[in-house]
Design goal:
By secondary structure, the protein is an alpha+beta fold. The protein contains 8 helices and 13 strands.
Length: 301
């Protein structure tokens, strides 16, 4: 999924966002994490990281604001890889941030994975994807996800990744409000609410439906965290209600929120839904799911 490209300003890696087509919470573990089962797909809405050799390790950024210092997963990934591989040189890293933080789109984890891939090439560490994934799991549960297939089944606390075949056919509208949701608060709300397990189709059923019209897969989409997320922040724009009113059929929250995705068969219908979200005060991006091809991005006007 993550590929290194040579550019005039150094090596570059596109770090894609992801959507959780399904997300089932199986229970809380003894270590405080939750066991999950989720079908996840990467989409062509990406951050861009560039890498150049330098005496020191530095990170600059553009676009959306990013955490500074040790809170930045890119720096953590760089130091972890450098220590594991015994690297003596540094790197000048630039992150152009497009994926908003706190929306369940996985941007921070994707950036960390891209940093591992880009610096592995820049520093000529020689680690394979499996070795990078083991390092990535020490940074965050979602990081190994971005080092594999564009479509995958994620289990455990997120560290068990099973690549899945298929080329999703839909256009994807990403939509989010002007606020993010802290993941720990959403899981705490889930534990507090203790929602009853509803009737669910097998999570992997959607993998057999990637070539079907979007409305036919609507019953297969679910996210067990949605009620908890809505309880954490119940005021402000409701992306769900806005999409419903605009006529979207196949949509769901991604991750722990606050973003939603809607699957469309045509760009025209997705544009209608996007206009409704923007009119209500939300933000939108129209993109595609990745299927082993170069990321394609299109920000709606």
């Amino acid at each position: 999924m993550l590929e290194v490209a040579s550019r005039k300003d150094g090596l570059a890696v596109e770090a894609p966002a992801k959507v959780n087509l399904t997300l089932r919470v199986l229970g809380r573990r003894a270590d405080g994490y939750h066991d999950l089962e989720s079908v996840v797909a990467a989409v062509g809405f990406c951050d861009t990281l560039t890498f150049r050799l330098s005496d020191d390790l530095t990170l600059s950024s553009g676009g959306l604001a990013v955490p500074a210092g040790q809170d930045n997963l890119v720096i953590r990934a760089a130091r972890l890889l450098g220590g594991a591989a015994g690297v003596k040189s540094g790197a000048r890293i630039n992150l152009h941030k497009r994926i908003p933080i706190g929306r369940g789109l996985g941007g921070g984890s994707s950036d960390a994975a891209a940093a591992l891939v880009g610096l592995n090439a820049l520093w000529q560490c020689g680690l394979g994807r499996a070795g990078l994934a083991r390092l990535g799991a020490r940074i965050g549960s979602d990081v190994p996800l971005f080092l594999g297939s564009p479509v995958a089944v994620m289990r455990g606390r997120g560290e068990r990744i099973e690549p899945a075949p298929g080329a999703p056919r839909w256009r994807v509208l990403l939509a989010w409000p002007d606020y993010g949701l802290p993941t720990p608060e959403v899981y705490a709300a889930y534990d507090r609410l203790a929602p009853a397990a509803g009737a669910r189709t097998e999570a992997t059923a959607i993998l057999r439906s990637l070539d079907r019209p979007a409305r036919e897969v609507a019953p297969l989409l679910f996210n067990d965290l949605e009620l908890a997320a809505r309880s954490v922040r119940y005021n402000g724009i409701s992306i769900r209600k806005t999409l419903e009113a605009a006529g979207a059929g196949a949509f769901s929250m991604t991750g722990s929120g606050s973003a939603y995705f809607a699957l469309a068969d045509t760009e025209a219908e997705a544009q209608v839904w996007a206009a409704a979200v923007r009119a209500a005060g939300g933000e939108t991006v129209l993109t595609t799911m990745l299927a082993g091809t170069d990321p394609q991005r299109e920000r709606l006007p």
